[in-house]
Amino acid sequence: MTAYPDSLSRLVESLKRLPGIGTKTAERLAFHLIKLSDEDAMDLARAIRDVKQNLTKCSVCFNFTERDPCPICADAQRDKSIVCVVEQPKDLMAFEKAGAFKGVYHCLLGHIALLEGIGPEDLTIDALLKRARQGGIREIILATNPDLEGEGTAVYLRDALAEVAKQKGIRLTRIARGVPAGAEIENVSSAILSDALSGRQTFGG
Amino acid sequence: MTAYPDSLSRLVESLKRLPGIGTKTAERLAFHLIKLSDEDAMDLARAIRDVKQNLTKCSVCFNFTERDPCPICADAQRDKSIVCVVEQPKDLMAFEKAGAFKGVYHCLLGHIALLEGIGPEDLTIDALLKRARQGGIREIILATNPDLEGEGTAVYLRDALAEVAKQKGIRLTRIARGVPAGAEIENVSSAILSDALSGRQTFGG
């Protein structure tokens, strides 16, 4: 087998360090990159460098930001008394895109997954407890993913926050589970339908 | 909607210029890139820059290379009298990985697709005709893809090469179509089975 040219091999090896990218995908991406215009390729190389050099974590909510605190935490218009707790900055971005939330956030930077060796101490839970103890918060919404690890993390947070919530009068809530907007009942899983039934609410009357 | 931090937006925009990468995939890749170690991220940025700066096309076969002619064309051990014509350098790499071919190559850099505005003049067909006319070639294997465009391109090449092939005594061949090694007959498509039947060869006796 004749090897790839050196610079191409190095590019494929670099791409393979991205999570979830195997040899085949790395090779396909590399061939795409070769075909980019020089300008677009240089832009991308610069963008990768810039993002590593400029992006830091907000010391309040742990969102990615170029300024600390981040624009959301620094925004006087946001309601600091409601904190939405998410697993990752990308979950925060999803809520921001939905535009339905005007409070502030707390990014855990992961979820508890003991089998993978991720315990509560690997997340930003201590910082969340500290925020709760400082006062001024009336609700903490647990918005971890509706999956095994996300639910487990929500249960852990509920217990960890119980004492300070009682002391400070903070309401702990969990985002609703149910049928997703736009779905057809006949096509959703029974787990979703069970959630939708057990979470049913009074309607009119 | 609160925008991404600037450097993150620029990274997402840069990634979206890659063919076949939409907003969702670009965002997922960007979040992966943020999580890379500083060293791995800088390596990737450097690898992208290097590949654009160092990689050129072989003036003989149009494979990607850092030296001209490429290591395959420059290799005295390779049989220059058999030329395998492929669509893209990645097809050449696939043949090299298979290790079954000891001749040299010619990369067309695409296939004829008139509906997409890609005509014969957009490929390296003139250079292939020139190589054929220079002499020293006894066989040209047409190894374009076994799909509509690849077959069409092979037919076009057969006609375009007919005259010089006759003059110079060059044999034109096409790679075999049939059942893929390792496949189960019951699971392959009828198009594949038709190919396998019409291409059948004498076996023993």
Helix and strand layout, with pairings?
Two copies of one chain form a homodimer.
Chain A lengths: L5 H11 L6 H13 L2 H17 L1 E2 L6 E2 L13 E8 L2 H10 L4 E5 L17 H9 L5 E4 L5 H21 L2 E4 L15 H9 L7
Helix pairs in contact in A: 1-2, 5-6
Structure description:
- The structure is a homodimer of 205-residue chains.
- By secondary structure, the first copy, chain A, is an alpha/beta fold.
- The first copy, chain A, folds into 2 domains: 6-47, RecR Domain 1 (Helicase, Ruva Protein, domain 3); 77-202, 3-Layer(aba) Sandwich (Dna Topoisomerase Vi A Subunit, Chain: A, domain 2).
- Chain A is 44% helix and 12% strand.
- The first copy, chain A, has 7 helices and 6 strands; from the N terminus they run αααβββαβαβαβα.
- Chain A has a 4-stranded parallel β-sheet.
- In chain A, helix 6 (148-168) links the parallel strand 5 and strand 6 (171-174).
- Chain A is globular, with a radius of gyration of 22 Å.
- The mean pLDDT of chain A is 90.
- At the A-B interface, helix 1, helix 2, helix 3, strand 2 and helix 4 of A face helix 1, helix 2, helix 3, strand 2 and helix 5 of B.
